[in-house]
Amino acid sequence: MTTTIQTVGNLGRNPEIKYFESGSIKCSFTMAAKQKGIKQKDGTWLDPEPFWLAVEVWGKQGENLANKLHKGDTVDVRGELKRETFTRRDGTTGEKLIVVYPSVDVIKSKNQPSQQQQQQPPAAGDTGACPMPNPKPPASSEPPAQWNTAPLVPDSDDIPF
Question: What distance in Å separates the CA atoms of residue 138 and residue 1, rounded to the nearest whole number?
Fold first, then answer.
């Protein structure tokens, strides 16, 4: 039985891509997601700390995402949740959550043109019709060759919200 998750969050740093001798490709990134705020008795809202997830995308889909995503981009991620333990530098054991075999949709990219640029009038002869998006390639079913055991939280306190 697998545990699935869907969450929206912001990339904590630029994605990393690895090419393996076997021909496999892996894209890894971390994302910070926020839980819904909590209304306190005095009527103010408590803004909870974000939680961090690692995301691993394999194959051509991972390569495409690595070239498309950047730190701060907002993404919607759906996939299987995996828990992994690792050893910290001080020798203690830590735990992180990894979303594997995900579907990733970009909601907001820092590289998207501004609203003003997007609303330019169509050129002469342009029907104004939107092109159909390219279908997403299926997620690779190839099992990971090796899991990254790096800590999940970025080195700096720069949370991308």
Answer: 21
Residue the block writes with tokens 């998006």: 133
The four Cα atoms 104, 110, 112, 117 give a dihedral, to 10 degrees, of 160
- Count of C-beta atoms within a 10 Å radius of residue 69: 23
Q: How far apart are the first and last CA of the chain?
A: 34
Q: Report how far apart, in Å, the C-alpha atoms of 52 and of each of 23, 30, 124 are.
A: 29, 7, 47
Closest CA to 29 of 58, 56, 59, 60: 56
Every domain of the chain and the residues it spans: 3-118
Distances (CA, A) of 132 to 7, 48, 62, 135: 25, 39, 22, 9
Does the domain formed by 3-118 have CATH 2.40.50.140?
yes
Please write the tens of the pLDDT for every residue from 41-94: 898 888 888 889 999 999 999 999 999 999 999 999 999 999 999 999 999 999
Global confidence as pTM = 0.63
Q: Where are the beta strands (DSSP E) in the chain?
A: 3-11, 16-19, 25-33, 38-39, 45-46, 51-58, 74-87, 93-108
